[in-house]
Amino acid sequence: YRDSTLAWFWTMDVQRDAELNDWMSECMFLSVFYSSHWLRAKALKDRWEEEVELLRAEGKWTINFFDHKARSWDKLFWASDRQGWVGLACYAVRQWADFSRLWDHCKDLLHM
User: Fold this and answer.
1) Residue 77 burial by Cβ neighbours in a 10 Å radius (0-12, 13-18, 19+)
2) Which stretches of 21-85 are DSSP H helices?
3) Does residue 101 fall inside a structural domain?
4) Which of 24, 68, 83, 104 could form a disulfide with 17 if both were Cys (CB 3.0 to 4.6 A apart)?
């Protein structure tokens, strides 16, 4: 974003035009006014674009987290089931179901 082309008022030769024409003295003030407002608007736009990028990344991180937790609880279920630990197996299945549901819901919600 920083290397994008400049607006027209940044490329004006205000000093030369002001020396050639009297009406350009007013234009010099307008040029400063417009350039400062343009910079402010561009900074705001850049911040919002960065925010959108961060939100998309956070959505992916959330989906990956729920997937990781679901897989972890699934592994724990199978390990505890083999050992015959019924209580832990039931708890692990419940946690796996919760995280799988969250993963599925986030994936659908964020279209990823």
Assistant:
1) buried
2) 24-83
3) yes
4) 24
Sign of the dihedral through C-alpha 58, 61, 67, 70: negative
Residue 72: HSE in the Cβ half-sphere, 13 Å Cα cutoff:
9
Q: What percent of the chain has pLDDT over 70?
A: 76
The mean pLDDT of the chain is: 85
Query: 86-110 and 24-83 helices cross at what angle (nearest 10)?
Result: 150
Rounded Cα–Cα distance for residues 35 and 5 (Å): 14
pLDDT at 27: 61
Handedness of CA 101, 102, 106, 112 (dihedral sign): negative
pLDDT score of 58: 96
Domain span at residue 95? Answer: 8-110
| pTM to 2 decimal places | 0.63
Q: Is 2 a domain residue?
A: no
Q: Is the pLDDT of residue 109 over 80?
A: yes
In which element (H, E) is residue 91 found? helix 86-110
